[in-house]
What does this fold into?
Amino acid sequence: MTALPGAARRTAPPVSDGDGRRVRSAVPAAVGSPAWIARLAATAALALDGALHWGGIVRPGAPGALLGTFVVAMAAALVLPSALAVAGRAARTAAVAGLLLVALALILAIAGVPVAALRPDRWDTLTANLANGIGTLPALRMPYRGVDPWVRAVLLSGGGLLVLLGAALALAPRPRVYGAALVLGVLYVVPIVEHAPDHPYLDGALFALLLGVLLWADRLNRREAPVAAAIAVVAVLAAALVAPHVDSGKPWVDYEALAESLQSGKSTTFTWNHDYAPLTWPRDGLELARVRTRGDLYLKTADLETFGGGAWKQSRAALGGRSDDTEFAPGHPDWMQTIHVTIKGLRTEQFLGAGTTMLVSHSTKAVQEATPGTFQASDKPLRRNDSYDALVYVPKPGTVAMHRAGFDYPNYVMRDLALDFPQGSPGGAGPVEVDFPAWGADLTPMVRSYRGYPFLSLDEALDASGYRRDYELAQQLRNGSADPYDFVLNTMARVNRDARYTESPPPPGKLPPLDAFLFRDHAGYCQHFAGATALLLRMGGVPARVVAGFAPGSRDGKDHIVRDLDAHSWVEVYFPHIGWVTFDPTPGDSPARGQQTDLQTASIPASTTSRSSTPTRDRPARPAADGATVVNPGDDSDLALPLTLGGLALALVGSGSLLAIRRRRRLERSGDPEVEELRLALVRCGRPPAPDMTLAHLEHLLDGSEDALGYLRALRLRRYGRGGPPPTAAQRRALRHELGVGLGLRGWLRSVWALPPHPRELLAALKPRRRRSYTA
It folds into this structure.
């Protein structure tokens, strides 16, 4: 009787150079080997680190969604080798395609795509929505603060797909570690470029160590690994010490200055008054200014406080005059900051500020006050390379503060409750000014003519001007609102209802432009959305004004780059004891926005409910206490946990099936898989057989149950007798019990690893047992 077979080397010898030194393993590390485990750990750590960083490119952040997509992606990557091992080309292709389809569906669902949209009969709509979200990406500014669910889904699922691709490359039967490193590097680098981490040097050191493990785990043997690890740690620590000194404010190669020199003669000038005509001016992404701020700020150039001739314009009467512009909220020093502005391709008389600009200093041009809260150059306009500092007050209150602000308005904001109607009086009396009473004042609007008619009828003025239905709409919105802030939300919802963004709006014809926008066309650009919102707010008794300038721009390190694409108009609303608060009713697909920033959003989820009865069917998302926009996740948000748990189950099943396939192939290569499995089980349980050990001798030495002895007897008869059935499930369980007996929990775990449950055991456990009647 022959002895148990010895351990045979199943891997090819390493490739070596002429001196016999090891260069690289000729075959990939086997599943379960220390090198494979190190590669798996490094891949998982890199993917998890990158996924958590990727979750920061949206606001509010979504680490939970990215954690779920990470689990699904890693699970699919572990199962993929099993799918590739399926026999038959057609079956293999079907297995791989099915696995990737399931993984993609789970990633999209966790990222926020409604589960109903994943049905095959709705794939055309799903593809169109995803394509629209992808098409919006070039215009986005990161972090994305919008509420467009498809844009958020595209961003979050993109991180999950990068995890899936990187893990699949790293854990493939023939791993592509360089490709995996490139993909996982993109997953890590893109979000930190858009939003720097809190501890960049420590974060980078961790990434460098993990990347080194991924790249070189398969190339090192056990003797080389400690030395390599020590060298890597020393190198990373040295780099962490040197990096802060190398990271200076001045670049080594100022490629931006080189690019600016090629376009030094190019500049752009803007006219800020509204006219609502189609936009035809060219926009090629020219850099206009660089602004260093704390956080994202809308950059103001002019207040358009006068509504005259049917459009919003800058008030010439206020130019050069000194007047109060705002109150300052106590206890909020963070609402005040000094910004630094450097002019690039812009030629302007107005200084770029934010909120209420209180002071301009260190300017290369002479400064004078323009309208309250803004400044302009008194001599020559600002040009390329001019710079200055501006002290600005930009309040960012939360929802509760604005609801409780009340309506104790200071006298100097009453000018922002007046509207000029060019044809507002009958009988040719000419233009009139209507002063609307402030919220809470039990007064009627006062109509005054510029031609000597002190008191006129409001109804006649509205009929003559063409704004009667606008006034009635404002009163309807006001009556359905609980307080001024609620009125602002209702007004923005009505302005956005069924409206679309277009830079070629239909001509108004005989109607006033904003009236045609609200009641007939529902199409326009930022001038229409901001102008209509301010018009309705003033008619309802809330001080408001239109503001012209630039959206925050794209972030580049500590600076915001402002381009010609960022030219924009929005609304400021006054809240007592707080000041002018920024609201932007323009939809997020406009070139200047590309996302929703600051306090308010314009993409209004229909499922958002109102806190009071209102005639509008939609309401904007309310800002949180810190001013950040709260996004309604929709009805499928509660599916994230089940989907994540499903991904974990998929990972366990996939890794188990992968190990089972590897184990079966190894045993088949031995020539006698059942006996080889027994030998491996004895070795893994710490009981290696002697070189001359036979099955009969082992059966004689084993002191166990009859089922355990039956396992050995069945193997002996199948190998040396006339064949017979394989060991039963009960015999396999009994032998596993004997292998772990006396060794506690650790021994039981080792016995399960040594002799894993066979599918026959699982099927036998699932079969219902026949019940026998009890007899005494």
